[in-house]
């Protein structure tokens, strides 16, 4: 259990991409990590794009970001909502300053773009937001996983196995 003492924030909001939230959460928990689902409200059930529910463990206001080792941002349409919360932007900025692992997949790049942390950072995302990523200053690649420092990015659900492995490996080494 190489991630036994690691704590991770997994952001959640309605219309998250079901696999892009649950696959990483379950894999990281299998490796021993504590993964808290964090949304606007605690103990609220959020619905995935395809109907898989996720109940938040904590609200944004309940979280001390410094107590966590990493953050995961799922894709789907949730990132367009998540990036509107000042707390989420603050979480991402704090993780970036601390050089803690930040995982983003698919449309999750919108959150990092809104946090203003992508200048000259190599990333990937769903091709549909390539322009948003490059306009935010990122250097975009069409690859299953791109790692630049402490940021691990991926394109879409078929890329989940290498994405989550890369994220878990980074977390284990941090």
Task: Please outline what is shown here.
The chain is of the alpha/beta class and 174 residues long. It has one domain (7-173): Rossmann fold (3-Layer(aba) Sandwich). It is built from six helices and eleven strands.
Write up what this structure looks like.
With 174 residues, the protein is an alpha/beta fold. It has one domain (7-173): Rossmann fold. Helices cover 33% and strands 22% of the residues. The protein contains 6 helices and 11 strands. The strands form 3 sheets. Strands 5-2-1-6-7-11-10 form a 7-stranded mixed beta sheet, with helices on both faces. The longest helix has 14 residues, at 160-173.
Helix content: 25-40%
Q: What is the CATH top level name? A: Alpha Beta
Whole-number tally of structural domains: 1
CATH architecture: 3-Layer(aba) Sandwich
Largest sheet: 7 strands, mixed
- Give the number of helices: 6
Mean pLDDT: 97
The low-pLDDT segments are none
SSE topology string: EHEEEEEHHEHEHEEEH
Q: Estimate the strand proportion.
A: 15-25%
Domain DJ-1/PfpI: 6-167
Protein name: Protease
InterPro entries: C56_PfpI-like, Class_I_gatase-like, DJ-1/PfpI
GO biological process, one term: proteolysis
């Amino acid at each position: 259990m190489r991630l036994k003492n690691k704590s991770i924030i997994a952001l959640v909001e309605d219309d998250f991409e079901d696999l892009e939230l649950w696959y990483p959460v379950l894999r990281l928990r299998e490796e021993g990590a504590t993964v808290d689902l964090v949304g606007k409200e605690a103990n609220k059930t959020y619905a995935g794009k395809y109907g898989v529910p996720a109940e938040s463990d904590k609200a944004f206001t309940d979280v001390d970001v410094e107590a966590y080792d990493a953050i995961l941002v799922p894709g789907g349409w949730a990132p367009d909502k998540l990036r509107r919360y000042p707390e989420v932007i603050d979480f991402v900025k704090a993780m970036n300053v601390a050089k803690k692992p930040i995982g983003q997949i698919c449309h999750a790049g919108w959150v990092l773009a809104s946090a203003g942390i992508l200048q000259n950072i190599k990333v990937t995302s769903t091709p549909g937001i390539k322009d948003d990523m490059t306009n935010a200053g990122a250097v975009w690649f069409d690859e299953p996983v791109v790692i630049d420092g402490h940021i691990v990015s991926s394109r879409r659900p078929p890329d989940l196995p290498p994405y989550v492995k890369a994220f878990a490996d980074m977390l284990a080494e941090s």
